[in-house]
Amino acid sequence: MRPQQFIKEKLLFLQKKLAHYLNNKAAVLSNGQLKICLILFCLLFAVATILAVMDSFTTTTIMQNVKIKTAMPVPVNNRIDSVNNSALKRIHSFKLYMDSLSKFDQKKYENIIDKRPHLMDSINRIENKIQLP
User: Fold this and answer.
1) Contacts with 83 (C-beta within 8 Å, 6 or more apart), sequence order
2) In the chain, what are the domain boundaries?
């Protein structure tokens, strides 16, 4: 049993147990007594709400300007100078392989492109940034 399922079942059990307990307590009271309890409950929370609203009007709080630091994005280094020659040759040979697949094995080519949609865009971008011989 997953922990989430266990916690859910435990909470439902406790909820039913509490509801049963409160029903037993309320069963002893008459309808008139229940109405009085409901009215007292509503009055209690109405008074608490009114006091909270009044307190918010009477309290003088001085608001100060708060400076929020914004996170500046880190500049992305678009330079591809760190790619060495062997990696560039591998990238170029992979591009040739994909080009041949697009002509001769369209199904395999589409399967690769479906799984990696921006692959050819990245390869073309690298080749455009660094001119291969």
Assistant:
1) 91, 126, 130
2) 3-58, 85-129
